[in-house]
Amino acid sequence: MQRVSQDEAELIRRILAGETHLFHDLIRPYEKMIYVTIFAMVRNEAEAEDGAQDTLTNAFRHLRSFRGDSKFSTWLVTIAMNEGRQRLRRFKRAAEESLEDTVTESEGDFTPAFLTDWREVPLEALERKELRQKLREAVESLPPIYREVVVLRDLQELNQEETAAALGITVAAVKVRLHRARMMLQKTLVPYLKQSSAPRKGLFGRWFQ
Amino acid sequence: MKLECKHVWAHISEYLDHELDAKLREEIEKHLENCEVCSAILDSTRNILVLTANDRTFELPVGYSERLHDRLEKVLRENPGTDKHSC
User: Fold this and answer.
1) A-chain residues near B20 (CB < 8 A)
2) Residue A174: inside a domain, yes or no?
3) Do B42 and B12 meet the contact criterion of CB atoms below 8 Å apart?
4) Which CATH number do you get for residue A133?
5) B56-72 burial: b if 16+ Cβ within 10 Å, else e
């Protein structure tokens, strides 16, 4: 199976052979992904931007160690995730975060929020700036162990195995954390969505209780 | 066996990821046909994930790309021909 596109493989070969300026082109498609990964972890723009620069500097310096047995994007996002984790540990709300980290992983019932009438077309909903803000806040407020899996699986769309490898956990743990994280997002966001899409309820009216 | 709502909720994430075996998936789908609560929960979860992943949800700071490539340019200039350290 071909994991690295031919174009990327060729770019990497030429960069390693000395055409270092091509590194700009190699990473351009991924620069936003790198920023978002780190931002979702550290929750601070300046910190995320610094982290993205460091990530890509490191990626350049260690490009030779990229073996092509994963996608290049996965390799990059793994470096970014580690950068985000390190920064989180170093700078951000150290006490608070370490408490969050102790959240147990025992099976518990996560009851989703019941919504009655939210049938807004997703991309239409996204026109609302305050909704985008709410979405960011919801992701950012997840405890780190849950935030990490959401970032890798749902934002960067890594598969289960890639996510597990990037985080150094089992696929089973990825699934459990992802499920909980998604239910937490659902619970956090649904009341807001329901309320703000009230005008549409006549159209799709669904009432339960 | 008739599925209860809470069993469906326990599998929402795997359902969305198409990771359930055919039998369980079928049972869940049968449940969803008759349960508006569960189908609304499923739809909302799916929509939230679509929205979260959308490009517009997380935005880049103004000038991010320029600053990034300026910094990289400096690094690239300091390391002409990484080839020299080759194996």
Assistant:
1) none
2) yes
3) yes
4) 1.10.10.10
5) ebbebeeebeeebbebb
ipTM for the whole complex = 0.84
A48: in domain? yes
- Contact of A142 with A150, CB cutoff 8 Å: yes
* Alpha-carbon distance values, A208 to A28, B38, B47 (Å): 48, 11, 20
Domain residues for the domain of A155 are 122-204
What span, in angstroms and rounded, lies between the C-alpha atoms of B15 and A68? 31
Over chain B, what is the mean pLDDT? 87
C-alpha to C-alpha distance for A29 and A50, rounded to whole angstroms: 18
- What CA–CA distance (Å, rounded) separates A64 from A5? 17
A102: how many CB neighbours lie within 10 A of its CB?
Answer: 8
Domain at A27, CATH number = 1.10.1740.10
Mutate to test the interface with A, among B4, B9, B12, B13 (most CBs of A within 10 A): B13
B5/A contact by beta carbon, under 8 A? no
Q: Is the Cβ pair A18, B75 closer than 8 Å?
A: no
What is the pLDDT, as a whole number, of residue B87? 39
Choose between B62 and A108: higher pLDDT. B62
Q: What is the pTM of this model?
A: 0.80
A160-167 and A171-196 are packed helices; what angle lies between their axes, rounded to 10 degrees? 110
User: Is the backbone of residue A207 left (phi > 0), alpha (psi -120 to 50) or beta?
Assistant: beta
Radius of gyration of chain B (CA): 24
